[in-house]
Amino acid sequence: MECQVYINGEYFPKEQAKISVFNHGFLYGDGIFEGIAAYGGRVFKLEEHLQRLWESAKAIDLEIPLSREELKGRLLETLRKNKLKDAYIRLVVARGEGDLGLDPRKCPHPDVIIIADKINIYPEEFYKKGLEVVIVSTRRNIPSALNARIKSLNYLNNILAKLEANLQGVPEGIMLNKDGYVAECTADNIFMVKDGHLITPPPWIGILKGITQDTIMDLAREEGIPVEEKIFTPVALYSSEECLLTGTAAEVMPVTKIDGRVIGDGMPGPITKKLMIKFRELTGREGTPIY
Ligand code: PXG
Fold first, then answer.
1. What is the tens place of the pLDDT at every residue in 9-46?
2. Does one domain contain both 148 and 108?
3. What does the DSSP 8-state code read for residue 91?
4. Whose CA is nearest to atom 19 of ligand 1?
5. 192-211 in b/e burial notation, b at 16+ Cβ within 10 A?
6. Are 92 and 155 in contact (CB under 8 A)?
7. What is each CA distance from 102 to 30, 95, 129, 156, in whole angstroms?
8. Residues 169 and 270 placed together within one structural domain of the fold
9. Measured between alpha carbons, how far is 140 from 212 in angstroms, rounded to an integer?
């Protein structure tokens, strides 16, 4: 069946799902989004994603033209219309149609767009062997200029980093913050294991506060693994015992090589493997029912 896209209360087949070239979401990246996953007929961490969407909206002074309950209803309806059980959902709120000037006051009607499609999982090979990644030269935006906690349609910072990784022939790039501390990847958060402790950078260094990152910290604590949110350098990362990435699309992804340095013994480590299993168990059992 053809993909049906929700735009402002109506459904359109993929080819007809279009918005104006005068939309400030297109012209300036003025808007926000969420990437959400559904597994076996349940939407994973839906409330958390909606909470983050509303926080992003507040930050850019954008009024979402639906209540949280209404938007939740539309999202679930979109999944049902597309007969999906396992899905990737892209929720977008764009500033709306305006004129050829930056002023958001010229855009009185924000757009709500919901795209639901089959989930596009990374090759199983990556999860078995781990990823090779590089540290890119593009620094993460400084929070005082564009705070990464706002999940905005402005992803050029991340795209520049992704381009660098692509050009170096690897699937992901690690970004540092302006001071040279490890920040995050282009669409994933990062963890390392050191002396058996699971360590991830704190949000204030200028990263998106990941919902998967939070989930993994909770799962680790449940397992009795000490968890720390603290800053660390690339040098510390090179000598870590394990490294892993987390995100809605990547889930829990082991990293086994960084800038040519082998991490641990070059294969996914025991803590990473444990967390991968625990995460898959959780996604199989938790979430908002679609049907
Ligand atoms: N950092 C950044 C910069 C992200 O964009 C994450 C971390 C992980 O956050 P979550 O909450 O997902 O654990 C993201 C997530 C896509 C896509 O298709 C992007 C994200 C999530 C899902 C899909 O580009 N970004």
1. 999 999 999 999 999 999 999 999 999 999 999 999 99
2. no
3. E
4. 187
5. bbeeeebbbbebebbbbbbb
6. no
7. 9, 11, 46, 18
8. yes
9. 20
One-letter amino acid of 75: L
Whole-model pTM above 0.85?
yes
Q: Which residue, 71, 96, 117, sits at the end of a domain?
A: 117
Contact residues of ligand 1, CB 6 A cut-off: 35, 158, 184, 187-189, 208, 210-213, 246-249
Under DSSP, the state recorded for 287 is S
Instruction: Fill in the amino acid letter for 126.
Output: F
Taking the centre of ligand 1 as the mean of its atom positions, its distance from the CA of residue 91, in whole angstroms, is 12
Question: Could you write out the DSSP letters of every residue in 68-110?
Answer: HHHHHHHHHHHHHHTT-SSEEEEEEEE--B--SSS-GGG--S-
- Based on the fold, state whether residues 112 and 250 are members of the same structural domain: no
Domain co-membership, 62 together with 80 = yes
Whether 37 and 87 have beta carbons less than 8 Å apart is answered as yes
d(CA 89, CA 171): 22
**Cα separation of 157 and 28, whole Å?**
14
**223-261 confidence digits (pLDDT tens):** 999 999 999 999 999 999 999 999 999 999 999 999 999
Q: Which atom of ligand 1 is nearest to the CA of 215?
A: 13
Q: Residue holding tokens 């219309």?
A: 81
C-alpha 149/C-alpha 203 separation (Å) is 8
Using the 8-state DSSP alphabet, how is residue 222 labeled? Answer: H
